[in-house]
Write a structure and sequence with these properties.
Elements: E1 24-26, H1 29-32, E2 40-43, E3 48-51, H2 57-64
Antiparallel strand pairs: 1-2, 2-3
Length: 65
């Protein structure tokens, strides 16, 4: 099964990870517990969690390469 590639412009992504980003979704309460779901943000681009209000991981990766 192939993954659908998400198109995005790095310059338009927010500097810090939060729910204002169009690629951010709430975490699954089963994974980290309902009381802590607002501490982590699921990034649809990287398909991984990032701490809320941490620097954007996608921007970090693009700056390194």
């Amino acid at each position: 099964m192939s993954k659908k590639k998400i198109k995005y412009d790095v310059e338009e992504l927010p500097l810090y990870c939060d729910y204002n980003c169009e690629f951010a979704t709430f975490t699954d309460p089963e994974c980290i517990g309902a009381c802590r779901r607002d501490l982590a943000v699921w990034c649809k681009i990287l398909e991984r969690y990032n701490n809320k209000h941490a620097k954007c991981l996608v921007r970090k990766q693009k700056l390194r390469s």
